[in-house]
Amino acid sequence: MSQIRKHYFMDEYCIIAPRRNKRPSDYADSIFEKKTSECVFCEGYEDNTPPATAVYKNEEILQDTDNSRIKNWGIRCFPNRYPALSSKSERPSDTISTTMEGYGFHEVIVETPKHSHKVSNFSDDEIMLFMKAYQDRVTYYQSLEKIAYVSLFKNEGQKAGASIAHAHSQLIALPFIPPELKREVEVIKASETCPYCNIIVEECGGPRLLYHNEEFIVIAPYFSKVPYELWILPQRHINHISDFTEDMLGLLGDAIIFSLSSINNILKEVPYNYMFYQLQDDPKYHFNLRIQPVTSIAAGFEKNTGIYINTMPPENAVQQLKNNIS
Ligand SMILES: [Zn+2]
Ligand SMILES: [Zn+2]
């Protein structure tokens, strides 16, 4: 049973999620799961995963039952077999007061039935379905009682934390708003105008602008923590994906594909993470999506200070990315 534990005296949290049958050698060998020969995310292996909570198939959203699995799907969502949080958590009774129950949800979103298919090669229909699934799943979890924040993210490649190569995203629904986001909200609340809207005005037409369409811009932010970091921002002030129109979802998909393809063009199959930043209940927040290629790991200095050393100025990164657009 997992627990959410708060720092002794700071507004910081960790999740303790014990996994049975894990031995010390499992940690010593590798942080990743042992590779099995069969991929359980592939079509045809649906029986090897928990029943799907949402299956996107021919314009419909269906659900598996305990004993039967839907086949021939486009996108498939199911609970993580090793969830960080659980809806069945109980309040801990014998721990210090800064511990709360590990209540929440942890879902896997398998983005395609095909094993080697990647988002950067998705067709218009595929990316549309993918963005709709993001919108649906986040909106669903956000509507649940006791859920305050839904973290939606993608880890691609082992070095980015993905234990399975098949394209997938994850969603963790939390019973509280993460402190980092809360701090950001306080700053935004104290600002006269939206800081993200200001960034858009500042960066449009500048050396860090990589791409724009009718709704979104992609920039290498002035404050780039890692080489080739990219932010996708809606040009309109909008706080959450649940408010996106169908057109916006398609254009968000285009911006994601453009960004990932540009990065791939110069860094080949570089591992990356992307993370959604959004708050449904706070109209002052401005949706943004951050893509961070993994070219090095956070080491002692970063862990000690929270300050990142980035050897690639974002202005140069954009220049290189633009020069290599195919
Ligand atoms: Zn697969
Ligand atoms: Zn704004």
TrEMBL record:
Entry's Gene Ontology molecular function annotations: UDP-glucose:hexose-1-phosphate uridylyltransferase activity; zinc ion binding
Keyword Disulfide bond: no
One GO-annotated biological process of the protein: galactose metabolic process
Keyword Nucleotidyltransferase belongs to the record: yes
SUPFAM superfamilies: HIT-like
Pfam families referenced in this protein's UniProt entry, alphabetically: DUF4921
Top-level lineage group: Archaea
Residues forming coiled coils: none
Domain DUF4921: 139-321
Catalytic site positions: 168 (tele-ump-histidine intermediate)
InterPro entries: ADP-glucose_phosphorylase (IPR053177), DUF4921 (IPR032576), GalP_UDPtransf1 (IPR001937), HIT-like_sf (IPR036265)
UniProtKB keywords: Nucleotidyltransferase, Transferase
The protein's name: DUF4921 family protein
Organism: Methanohalophilus halophilus
Lineage: Archaea, Methanobacteriati, Methanobacteriota, Stenosarchaea group, Methanomicrobia
